[in-house]
Write a structure and sequence with these properties.
24% helix, six-stranded antiparallel beta sheet, 22 strands, five-stranded antiparallel beta sheet, alpha+beta
Length: 590
């Protein structure tokens, strides 16, 4: 027990790992000489008595030390980390390798490829060891400056700056900026003037001013105005100051000139123009159709006004619906975070329809049994949607699409959920949180709350019935009137007996939910729809989706083939129909 307690104390792991410490202790102890093997050779181990061969000790490691598990190539991308930092906790049974604990993912890893730093215990509060540092850069080319007594200047008085190389005493440094004073500071070491050497010219310095990097928190226009103000405030150095002999501190390192100052190219103005264009492109976004990832990034885009309207529309929907109320955060309450999900809605031909901003809660931080219970919510699968289109073509049913605006906001929450205020719209201070009264996207029970509300309206109010096998497909039948309505989250498609019946049901449904009437169905779930009632045909096309995939993988200019068959495929007469039944079956196949 003393060995196990010492292992846990040295490693810093909690006592719940005592089983792994015991198993590792037994694994090592069986490979050490024991007094129980008296009468045999002196170095006999229990392992040798059991297996009849000497044990291999090359795989033994210090328990609880830092370990780096190798990530297999098929489990990572090219630029991902090849190693995962873990903690060594033992040896697997009947497998030559190591058992590692990943504290970030809280999971056990068994691997045979790992690196170890046995001097560092990441969770230990007793050990003072640190990870092995990187070797310092070589200083062979830096001349050493001697002190007044001729000894090397590496005494204990200068331990505050051990990594900085001293300045060479034979070359003058670049001229100091005009904004700084050339008089020595009282705390600075003694300065010695260096005579000017006409045979050694000083480094050429560019006469242009250096712009400060743009503030990433500001839009592009504000960053350019900030740089313009900075350029107006920086004075140019006078010739008298440049010609004066500089004062060099003996023990201070020489300032390294920037890359731009040593550039002797004559095209500096062109380079500055290119840098400015790249700066504007970075702030405004390379492609306006590429969706931003946060509120701050959207406000820095060139179409920030349109995104601001999308944000305002989402917040107006929450205010109109009464999704939450601002309250003081109760002591000990679990507060759920949120984020903005931004999307550029496109039509079937790829043109931009509108910008959509949606506030989504980070529901993965919710606790089961505390702030959510039931989560199951049915939705119409793609086969059910295609079956509806097939029946519409066979029965001549016109198609009509709708989109429920902010669908999840209509559901009722069955638990107390406290959420942080949205980014960019915080009110009342940091102690105020949002207590949800309605469902919101991202919560664990949000989809179920919306489906329960939708079923109540369609079944109890409008007379639909839900198909038992597919819970999110509803059917309305009244005499010779028939309507099929598959719902995929918030997208519904009516397939009714007539356009008048579809219009009447859309009007009735709009009395309970705010929706957008999309008219005749043209685009559903990324599929372009074209219906021909006279011919009894419904055509489905994913042309725009194929174009997006080709553009994503830079294959939009690839050559097409007339017959996309497997390369090298050889067909023979044995593959053709052999009987009359097979010929009749293949007669209508092109």
């Amino acid at each position: 027990m003393e060995a196990i307690a010492a292992s846990l104390a040295e490693s810093g792991l909690p006592q719940s790992f005592w089983g792994e410490a015991l198993a590792s202790f037994v694994h090592v102890w069986n490979r050490l000489p024991s007094s129980s093997t008296a009468g045999r050779t002196q170095d006999t181990t229990p392992y040798e008595l059991w297996y009849g061969s000497k044990p291999d000790l090359t795989h033994l490691r210090v328990w609880g030390c830092r370990a780096y598990a190798h990530v297999q190539r098929d489990a990572r991308f090219k630029l991902d980390w090849h190693m995962v930092p873990c903690i060594f906790i033992g040896y697997p049974v009947d497998f030559r390798g190591w058992k590692l604990w990943d504290p970030a993912e809280r999971k056990l890893i068994v691997t045979e490829r790992a690196d170890f730093d046995e001097r560092y215990f990441p969770l230990s509060k007793l050990a003072t060891g640190e990870p092995s540092p990187l070797p310092p850069p070589p200083l062979a080319d830096v001349p050493q400056v001697l002190g007044p007594g001729g000894d090397s200047d590496d005494d204990d008085d200068n331990d505050d700056d051990p990594a900085l190389p001293p300045a060479p005493a034979h070359a003058p440094p670049p001229a100091p900026p005009a904004a700084q004073s050339c008089s020595p500071s009282p705390e600075a070491p003694d300065f010695l003037p260096l005579p000017a050497d006409p045979q050694i010219p000083g480094p050429r310095r560019s006469e242009r001013t250096r712009n400060q990097p743009p503030d990433w928190r500001l839009p592009a226009a504000a960053s350019r105005q900030q740089n313009r103000t900075t350029r107006e405030q920086v004075p140019s150095p006078s010739p008298k100051q440049e010609a004066s002999s500089p004062l060099v501190p003996i023990r201070s390192p020489a300032p390294s000139p920037s890359i731009a100052d040593t550039n002797d190219s004559d095209d500096e103005d062109d380079i500055l123009a290119i840098d400015k264009d790249l700066e504007d492109a970075h702030a405004a976004g390379v492609d306006p159709l590429m969706d931003p990832h946060s509120y701050r990034e959207a406000m820095a885009r060139s179409n920030a006004t349109q995104w601001a309207e999308a944000f305002a529309e989402e917040m107006a929907a929450h205010e109109r619906n009464g999704t939450w109320e601002l309250v003081d955060c109760p002591p000990g309450a679990h507060v759920v975070d949120n984020r903005w999900v931004l999307k550029t809605k496109q039509r079937a031909d790829g043109t931009v329809e509108r910008l959509k901003a949606r506030l989504v809660a980070r529901g993965f931080t919710q606790r089961p049994g505390v702030n959510y219970f039931e989560t199951y919510a049915p939705t119409a699968p793609p086969p059910a949607v295609r079956t509806t289109f097939a029946l519409a073509a066979a029965l001549g049913l016109p198609l009509r699409s709708i989109d429920i605006s902010n669908a999840f906001l209509n559901g009722d929450i069955d638990a107390d959920i406290y959420m942080r205020q949205p980014e960019g719209f915080a009110l009342g201070g940091c102690h105020k949180v949002c207590k949800l009264r309605k469902g919101i996207y991202g919560t664990r029970q949000g989809a179920r709350a919306w489906q329960v509300k939708l079923r109540q309206i369609l079944v109890d109010k409008l007379g639909f019935c839900a198909i038992y096998s597919v819970g999110s497909v509803f059917v309305y039948r009244n005499g010779d009137k028939l309507v099929m309505l598959p719902f995929h989250v918030d997208d519904g498609t009516f397939a009714g007996s007539s356009d008048e019946l579809n219009t009447r049901l859309v009007t009735r449904l709009s009395q309970f939910f705010k929706l957008r009437d999309l008219g005749t169905t043209e685009f559903v779930l990324g599929i372009a729809i074209k219906q021909d009632l006279a011919a009894g045909r419904v055509e489905l096309s994913q042309h725009q989706y194929v174009i997006e995939i080709l553009n994503r993988f830079a294959m939009s200019g690839c050559a097409s083939v007339t017959t996309p068959m497997t390369p090298g495929l050889r067909l023979s007469r044995a593959d053709s129909p052999q009987t009359d039944e097979e010929r009749a079956e293949m007669a209508d196949v092109p």
